[in-house]
Amino acid sequence: MIHFTKHERLVLVMLALVLLIGSSLSYIFKTYPQLNDIVNLLDNGQIYRKVDINTATAEELVAVPYIGPSTARQIMEYRQENGPFTDLQQLKSLKGIREKNYERFRPFLKISGRK
Q1: By CB neighbour count within 10 A (0-12 exposed, 13-18 middle, 19+ buried), where does 60 fall?
Q2: Per-residue exposure over 13-29, b if at least 16 CB sit within 10 Å of its own CB, e if not
Q3: What is the pLDDT along the chain (115 residues), one digit of tens a residue?
Q4: Is the pTM of this model over 0.85?
């Protein structure tokens, strides 16, 4: 029978915990790949507050990830012609906004009175 000292048992327990935590994190990140995007934002210091598309200036819209000057201009023009947005889904009706782009910048936007 193998006998371990108190210190050796402590080291074995710590190694087992590190292995368990590492395996759990690996499983979680494989199961939920969108967590990688969040971790990357945290690593890069790029945590953004949500921008209200009904009150934001063109400069504020361009500061939103994945929104360029052309899209910001379209949002501003839409507001002038049609009034405020009532649903973020309306952004998809703007020229050049594909589903993939919409899904990228949607988490950074909000509508007045909504989260």
Answers
A1: middle
A2: eeeeeeeeeeeeeeeee
A3: 888 999 999 999 999 999 999 999 899 888 888 887 777 766 665 666 789 999 999 999 999 989 999 999 999 999 999 999 999 999 999 988 889 989 999 999 999 865 5
A4: no
Angle ∠(69,74,77) on CA atoms, nearest 5 = 125
Contact 95, 114 (CB under 8 A): no
CATH architecture of 51-110: Orthogonal Bundle (1.10)
Distance CA 86, CA 74 (A): 16
Domain boundaries, the chain: 6-44, 51-110
Token pair of 56 as six digits: 């934001």
Nearest-10 Cα torsion for 96, 98, 101, 105:
80
